[in-house]
Amino acid sequence: MSGKYVISKQSNGQYHFVLKAGNDETILSSESYTTHASALNGIHSVQANSPIDARYERKLASNNKPYFVLKAANHQVIGTSELYNSDAARENGITSVKQNGPTTTIEDNSGG
């Protein structure tokens, strides 16, 4: 089973999407977008950039847990991972985004 994008509308009226792996686990979360079209553009950016290793920035949270951000060619953050318990788990997360990111399956729950 392959991954999918899920778009939702937040209580403040903004749009957000997550990338889910085939097991339905969220592997990447977007920023908030003011329009539905902007959220779709964000998905297209993830589809284009997720296979490229150089687009991933490996980071440590304030509690020293590893995570990553996916950036577009213009260095703008287009998605953030969860916090992981190890560098190896973070690398597995990146691998999953590389594999699932190019999917064209979009589940739109936003009503947009």
Q: What does the model show?
A:
The chain is an alpha+beta fold and 112 residues long. It has helices at 36-49, 87-100, and strands spanning 4-9, 15-20, 26-29, 56-60, 66-71, 77-80, 106-108. A hairpin with a 5-residue loop joins strand 2 (15-20) and strand 3 (26-29). The model has no long low-confidence stretch (mean pLDDT 96).
The 3D shape can be described as: globular
Number of helices: 2
Strand percentage lies at 25-35%
The main sheet comes to: 4 strands, mixed
Q: How large, in whole angstroms, is the Cα Rg?
A: 13 Å
- Beginning-to-end CA distance, first to last residue: 26 Å
Helix content: 25-40%
Number of strands: 7
Coarse structural class:
alpha+beta
Residue stretches low in confidence (pLDDT < 50, at least 5 long) are none
For the largest beta sheet, what order do the strands appear in spatially?
Answer: 3-2-1-7
Q: How confident is the prediction overall: mean pLDDT? A: 96
Order of helices and strands: EEEHEEEHE
